[in-house]
Amino acid sequence: MSLQTEFLTRATTAARQGGHIFPEMAACEAALESGWGLSRLAREANNLFGQKQDRGRTEGVGTLALPTREYLHDRWVVVDADWVRYPDWAASFAGRMEILRALSLEFPDYARALRASTPEQFVQIVSRRWSTDPRRAGKVLSIYDEHHRLLAALAAPASPGTASHAPDAMA
């Protein structure tokens, strides 16, 4: 099984456990944000979305300080940031949903994304505010389109008495 298949399978399962409204698309977002789970933030903090610590309150199970690249004033720059450390991937997905809900009054795009009727609509709307990368939504949709067969299999519920057609989740 390829790294990408293993990642998407594991991430989709974790997204479901974390209560994400579009788990397959969320797995694609996490693939982009975490470099297929290989980023230091993903490896050391189970943080798949680049969730930063909020000033005044600590989320997750701690903080990891790391530099990051941000697209500011029409150019990429490196800045230092404090990141949320999660106990596992499901908590990262749950934290992501919690952030979107908590900030939906302040950021109307988050409220609109939470009301989206399709995964594509969700990622297009949420990407307007979630990331400083102006091409984020297109990148996530490319991952989704490239792996559509696997993601469809992961989305399909198993029939009673039969095994799912989805690959086994990564341990």
What does this structure look like?
Mean pLDDT is about 90; it is low at about 160-170. Helix 1 packs across helix 2, helix 2 (about 25-35) packs across helix 7 (about 135-145) and helix 5 packs antiparallel against helix 6. The protein is globular, with a radius of gyration of 16 Å. A hairpin with a 2-residue loop joins strand 1 and strand 2 (about 75-85). It is mainly alpha-helical and about 170 residues long. The chain has helices at about 5-15, 25-35, 40-45, 90-100, 110-115, 120-130, 135-145, 150-155; strands at about 65-70, 75-85. The chain is built from eight helices and two strands; from the N terminus they run H-H-H-E-E-H-H-H-H-H. A two-stranded antiparallel ribbon has the order 1-2.
* pLDDT < 50 stretches: 161-171
Helix proportion: 40-55%
What is the β-strand count? 2
Element order: H for helix, E for strand: HHHEEHHHHH
Structure annotation, total helices: 8
Alpha carbon gyration radius: 16 Å
Q: What does the oligomeric state look like here?
A: single chain
Major sheet strand order: 1-2
